[in-house]
Design a protein that fits this description.
mainly alpha
Amino acid sequence: MTSKRRSFTPEFKREAARLVIDTDRSIRAVAEEIGVGEQSLGRWVKIERESRQPTKRRTVEELEAENARLTKELYEARKDNEFLGKAASFFAQKRQDRNGLN
């Protein structure tokens, strides 16, 4: 005999999680009261708490400052790359001169 796995609606899960969050009751007590597993209810509570956290929205000023910083960083990286290319070429030429290849 196989038992069918129970499924719960999103509304039921939210309401069950709210019972824990809003009434400050333990997950164990609410789980026993409504007849669900503690682990399941614990996951629902975690999801509900996360959904209540305000999302951090970045301001235009923050985005502009980051863009300026990244633009400067990219410029410096390109200059460093250009310098390193020239230095590598210079040292490769010196090495060829020493070996009498030129």
